[in-house]
Amino acid sequence: MTDHILTTLDGGILTITLARPGKKNAITQAMYSALAEATERARTDDTVRVLQFRGEGDSFSAGNDIADFIALGSQGAQAADMPVFRFLKALADLDKPAVAAVRGRAVGIGLTLLLHCDMVVVAEDALLSAPFINLALAPEAASSLLLPALIGHQRAFEMFALGEAIDGRTALAWGLANRAVPADQVEATAQDLAAKLALRAPNSIRKTKQLMRDAEHLWALMQREGEAFGSQMRSPEAMEAFMAFSQKRAPDFSKAG
Ligand code: COA
């Protein structure tokens, strides 16, 4: 149980709110379990026509909670046993439309989850980044396929390898978003799109989404990525990166090998 994931169902739109604003909506293990449950519900509950993701406070999400990475890495946890995998499977299987409203930071899975949304509204000044290599990790959520497919290999590689953020206008220009609007219009714009989608013929929209994505392939890739991610998470170079984040210093990979 967690208070950091809130769900509401209104007019056929199931809205999932990441609600841990004091930590920029960084996602804990308990939050992944709640996200998985809500995303599974979106697929199986006939009253849900559209799933919407949003974040409370000034950020969409700062990604995986780094304190959890430290705990899981030192316990030697296997990626496949982690609740994030249940959430990823639910995202791969989701065949109803998903909309995201993104203000502020979208980091790590805060960005890669957008690759599973069908309509993404970003603030013009939002900052999106995928700093897996800064943390000595590897891409997840099928982003090793979906990000280069959307924006091209070189841009995706640079986002993974240098970890620098792109702003919302760039995300729109690169095809990562449908709309880039002033921050105070993000929620209303996403809500309008979700409301339109909720009125569309439900079976037609589902079949369209099923035809546009290969859920089995995405899940197989997520599992393969999970092996690389898991072994990196348990590695000394990742532990150095996690400790550097907690100690608010730059990581030192000069002795890694
Ligand atoms: N895990 C755990 N805590 C996090 C976090 C994360 N991923 N991201 C932010 N927080 C916490 C900070 O430690 C800080 O906590 P504190 O107030 O107790 O010190 C609080 O959230 C606010 O973050 P802060 O860094 O002060 O905000 P900022 O506006 O200066 O920077 C970010 C925002 C998102 C750029 C920065 O927090 C960051 O880089 N976070 C890590 C992102 C990341 O690498 N995620 C994993 C990707 S795989």
Q: Can you give a write-up of this model?
A:
By secondary structure, this protein is α/β, with parallel strands linked by helices. The chain has a domain at 5-182: 2-enoyl-CoA Hydratase, Chain A, domain 1, CATH 3.90.226. It has 11 helices and 9 strands. Helix 2 packs antiparallel against helix 11 and helix 5 (143-151) packs across helix 6 (153-162). It is globular. The protein starts with a strand and ends in an 11-residue tail after the last helix. The model has no long low-confidence stretch (mean pLDDT 96). The structure holds coenzyme A. The site of coenzyme A has 16 residues, from helix 2 and strand 5.
Topology:
Layout: E1 5-10, E2 13-18, H1 29-44, E3 50-55, H2 66-75, H3 83-93, E4 98-102, E5 105-107, H4 109-112, E6 119-123, E7 127-129, H5 143-151, H6 153-162, E8 166-167, H7 168-173, E9 179-181, H8 186-198, H9 202-212, H10 215-233, H11 236-246
Parallel strand pairs: 2-3, 3-4, 4-6, 5-7, 6-9
Antiparallel strand pairs: 1-2, 7-8
pLDDT < 50 runs, ≥5 residues: none
Q: Could you tell me the radius of gyration in angstroms?
A: 17 Å
Query: β content, as a range?
Result: 15-25%
CATH architecture of the domain at 5-182: Alpha-Beta Complex
Task: Give the fraction of residues assigned to helices.
Answer: 40-55%
Number of strands: 9
CATH homology group of the domain at 5-182: 2-enoyl-CoA Hydratase, Chain A, domain 1
**SSE string, helix = H, strand = E?**
EEHEHHEEHEEHHEHEHHHH
CATH class of the domain at 5-182: Alpha Beta
> In angstroms, what separates the terminal alpha carbons?
40 Å
CATH topology of the domain at 5-182: 2-enoyl-CoA Hydratase, Chain A, domain 1
What bound compounds does this protein have? Answer: coenzyme A
Q: How is the main sheet built?
A: 6 strands, mixed
Counting H and I runs of at least 4 residues, what is the number of helices? 11
- Overall pLDDT level: 96
Structural class: alpha/beta
Mass-distribution shape: globular
Task: Provide the spatial order of strands within the biggest beta sheet.
Answer: 1-2-3-4-6-9
